[in-house]
Structure formats: C-alpha cells, structure tokens
Amino acid sequence: MYLDKIVEQHRTTAQRDTRNTKDLVAIAAKVAQPRRFIDRIRTDSVNSLAVITEIKRRSPSRGALNQNLDPTQIAQQYEQGGASCLSVLTDQDFFGGSTEDLQQAHSSVALPVLRKDFTVSSNDVCDARIMGADCVLLIVAALSVQELTEFKKLADELSLDTLVEVHDEPELEIALNIGASMIGVNQRDLKTFEVDHQRAVRMAAQMPANVVRVAESGVRTRADAQSLRDAGYHAILVGESLVTSNDIATSLRELRV
Length: 257
Known about the structure:
This protein is an alpha/beta fold. It has helices spanning 2-15, 21-29, 37-44, 71-80, 99-108, 122-130, 145-157, 169-177, 198-204, 222-231, 240-243, 248-255, and strands spanning 50-55, 58-59, 63-64, 85-89, 113-116, 135-139, 161-166, 182-186, 212-216, 235-238. The protein has one domain: TIM Barrel, CATH 3.20.20.70. 43% of the residues lie in helices and 17% in strands. α2 (21-29) packs parallel to α6 (122-130) and α4 packs across α5. The chain is globular, with a radius of gyration of 17 Å. The protein starts with a helix and ends with a helix.
C-alpha cells in the first residue's frame, strides 16, 4: 500500500523531531505574509477552470518523470501559460522533491504555492510556512479527525490556506465537519495508485456552494478538464502530464476551459 508506507515513514521521521512546536510557531509568525491561494482560485475560476500546476520529479507509480527539472524555469513556464497556483512536491524519498524546489519556485514567480507533502505533525505545518509555502496539504486518509482539526487550526493561525484531500464520501463528510474551505478530490486511489475518472464528478454535487472544489490526478486532456468544469470544479491540480510535456505552456492553455 503506497499511502501506508509513505505515511509510516513520515510518522517515524516526525517522532524523531525534537524541535519545540511553540518555537517553530514563533519563527513562522515572522515570515512574510503568505499569498492568498484560495482567493486566487476563486478569482480565476470565474472565467475559466483554474489550474494548479505541479512541480514533480518522480512518482512511486510511474518512476522518473522529469528528474532534472529546473524549479525556477518550470515555475516561470507555468506562470506564462496561465497557471493560477503552484504545487511543489517536497517529499524526497518517494517523489524526489525538496524544500529547495519549493523555495526556488516560490521566489521566481508571483503565484501562490502549495507545499505538496504528507503532513503528519504540527511541526510539518510550521515548516510549510517557514519554507515559504502559502498553502498546506492535509490528507484525510492519512490523519485522525483530531489531527486534522489540530493541523487546520494551526494553519489558520499561521495564515496558511489548507487543501483538505479526500477520496470518497465518508472522507468528504470528515473534511466538511472540520470546516474545510477548500477540498481536493483525488481521483487516484493512494492505496493502489489507480485512477478513477468518475470519482470527482460523482462527489462534486455533494459539496456545499461555499467550498472551493479542486479535482486532483489523472487530468490529461481538454475533455478531462471540461468534464470537471461542467461538474462544478473551480480548479484542477495537474502534474504528470505537464512536467512530461514538450510544450508546457501550450499543454497548460489546453486545460484552461
């Protein structure tokens, strides 16, 4: 099980972390005010589907995607192509990412940036803010309700937006109960890594109108994007099809339906 293995390793690392959370909160509070991730999606999605473009070197399911990518260069290509926000993998062992990838991308464009990683501790939330992220990922399948509540509260205190990721209806109910204002429906099953293209369409109608809706994984074509726009999504999060494209800007424009 991909998710179980990844989360277990991150929890092991978190248990070895001896840093004091209160000290990290104090450091995070001094970082420059974040860019407004959710606000950018709300604004851009009025006229077309917003696209959150991902900087991703490899994945557990497909292996190497673009191992030698330049975060600065690809972030600028995304911005020029009309991306609304960035998502940057910072997990090193499974995705080949790093804090440096996020910092380089963030400093090279004006777009809000999501730290795409497996958040399992309060210190992880603080680290996201300290490294310059504007939004943090909380995966319902990887966390208890108590952890989700605690981490979202801390993110709110640090002025970080949160993308709460779900895979099915019971997880959606949990996300709504903790007050998630932006919910991502991952069409990829994180246990098998198979993609179900109908998952996001099915779940869109079950989200309240005030929730920003993001569809994640498996979006490759303009038809995929149009289907999700028609279903009521504000944004899509796209990584693999863009980082492997020979013409990123053109591929990105195709998705902005």
